[in-house]
Every structure is written in C-alpha cells, then in structure tokens.
Specification:
By secondary structure, this protein is mainly alpha-helical. Helices cover about 70% and strands about 0% of the residues. It has 12 helices and no strands. The longest helix has about 30 residues. It is globular and about 55 Å long.
C-alpha cells in the first residue's frame, strides 16, 4: 500500500469523526414512528419537492462524475503503476468533495434517497457487489475451500472489465441513500462506504490490486453487519458474524497463501465458536449461520447467468463483420 491509500483511509476516518461531531445538530429533525424492519426511520416526516430534488440532483452529479472517470481511465488504456495517474487524482478529489457536499446537504435539507426508494434496495446493491467480488476472485482463490468451479469461458474477464460501473453505482447509491446521521450504524457504514470509494478511485494502481487491502474491504462487512445488528432488537448479530465468517473460512482465506495447518486452525476456531454460541439457542436458530453463505454462493451462479448474455452480446458487437467488402 502507498501514501494515497493511507490518505484515503485518513480522510474516511476524519469524515466519520466530523459526521459524529455534527450529529447533535440533527436531533431536532422530525421523523415518523418506526414501523418495523422494512421501514427506514431516518427520513423527513414531511418531505418537499426541494428536499427531494436537491439530494437526487447531487446524487446524479456524483454518479455521472464517477462513471466519467471510469470511462476516461478505460479509454486511456492505462498501465497499472505504483503511483497515481491524473484520473486517480481527479477521482479522489471529486469523491471527497461529493462526500463533503452530502454532509452539508444533510444539515440543510436532511433527506437521502431513502425517502423515495425501498430500504432493502441499498442492502441488495452492496450484497451484489460482494457477490461480484467472489466471482472475480474465483480463479485466484477458488470458491469452495480453494477449489475452483467450472464457469463459462470469458465470464470472469468480462466481470472484471465491467465491475467498475456497477460497483460505482452500488456504493454511490448507498452513500446518498442515507442522511449523514451519527448513529453507530451510520458512522460505521459511512466509513466503510468511503473506503470502497477510495478503492474505486485507485483503479490502474497497484494499491487497487493489493490482496490484503481488498480482503480487508470484504471482511469489514462482517464487522459492520454485526455492529448494526447489535443495535437492533432482532438478535441477528450472530447470524451476520458467523454468516460472513463462513464465507471467510470457505473462500476468502484460501487466497492468502496460508498453510493447510493455519487454515485448519482458523476453520476449527470458527466451528468451535459457532457451536458455543448456538448450543443454547434452539433448533429454530440453527439455520442462521447458513443464510448468508447460501445466498452469496447461489448469487455467484445467478450473477454468472445475468452476465452471460451481455458478455455474448459484447463479443458479437466486437467481432469483425464477416460480410464481404463492397
């Protein structure tokens, strides 16, 4: 890792601290009563055309900016380097500016995109991002305990070529979905989102490919998901911890070069912890550690099917015409 990556992490931390420091200013914002798990609490009780229009306009500007930097980098056919390209500098500065704009917008008009879209749309967008990473990393670390799975030829390279546009949408959409509230869940979420924005700004650099950095971004969802669940009343913190922990022991740790003995010890610790936590929970809870892995691994194959058609279409459009010249 090099200094731009550390600078990006530092900015993410400072933004999170600033969000926390300003959090009390939002205490007087009126909200409707909490209506359950499918209800998003942090939105205005009486939104207006102005409060809706401002956040959607800023989100759209941020999204178009991000997609523009990706297209710029791809058209330039940049080589992967240790330092920064000009487009990396533009992406880093631009994303930081839009982050600060969102912080200011929250304290003026408050609402995020959540006022107009379903609460689960944000969760699903990031879940698909993480599933996409599992697919892209399959050739390097396998999918199940280091073993690869048969996939259509060209699907992984196609996923790698196109992932930036989807990842950009998923993260920027999620970033603007929430107002910059200072609850524990919001603070942890914004820090995590900004780290992924830093990663997305470092395309065509070695830092972007650093396996320890990319693994940290994958594993942080375990910390974030568990922390958010601890603040809720549904008792699902163990599901998030052992669910995402299961993906680590089944897939993620097999790309780190660890010996079989080390991987076996980690697996044994995971299984021992799961047995200890769930021993007294009853049969109704025993499926919890399996929910997230089942969704994610099935999601990999669904994603392959979804990408297969666009991949074939892209190949057809790229292939030279076989028609005789006139």
């Amino acid at each position: 890792m090099h200094w731009p990556l550390f600078a990006g992490v530092a900015f993410s931390a400072l933004f999170t601290v600033l969000t926390w420091a300003l959090g009390d200013r939002l205490a007087a914002v009126p909200h409707l009563p909490d209506a359950g798990p499918s209800w998003y609490y942090w939105k205005l009780a009486e939104p207006t055309a102005l409060t809706r229009g401002v956040v959607w306009a800023l989100y759209a500007a941020h999204q178009l900016f991000s997609w523009g930097t990706i297209a710029w980098a791809q058209r330039a056919k940049l080589a992967t380097t240790a330092g920064l390209h000009r487009v990396n500098v533009v992406a880093l500065v631009g994303n930081a500016a839009f982050a600060l704009l969102h912080l200011g917008q929250t304290h003026v008009t408050y609402d995020g995109l959540a006022q107009d879209v379903h609460v689960f749309s944000s969760l699903a967008s990031v879940a698909i991002l993480l599933i996409w990473v599992l697919l892209m990393e399959t050739p390097r670390r396998g999918l199940f305990f280091g073993a690869t799975v048969p996939l259509p030829g060209g699907i992984v390279p196609f996923a790698r070529r196109t992932h930036g546009y989807y990842f950009s949408w998923a993260i920027i959409y999620t970033f603007w979905f929430h107002p910059t509230e200072a609850t524990n869940g919001h603070l942890a979420g914004f820090f995590y989102i900004l780290l992924i924005l830093v990663q997305g700004s470092l395309f065509f650099t070695r830092a972007h490919l650093n396996r320890w950095w990319t693994l940290a971004l994958e594993v942080l969802v375990l910390v974030h998901g568990t922390r958010v669940a601890m603040d809720q009343t549904f008792g699902l913190a163990p599901m998030f911890f052992f669910g995402f922990g299961g993906i680590f022991v089944i897939t993620q740790m097999h790309g780190l070069g660890w010996s079989r003995a080390v991987r076996g010890a980690v697996l044994a610790a995971y299984l021992g912890g799961a047995v200890w936590v769930y021993a007294g929970k009853g049969l109704a809870h025993l499926n919890e550690p399996f929910r997230i892995p089942i969704i994610d691994y099935l999601g990999v194959f669904v994603l392959v099917l979804l990408l297969w058609g666009p991949m074939l279409l892209a190949k057809r459009l790229k292939a030279p015409s076989s028609s005789p010249a006139r």
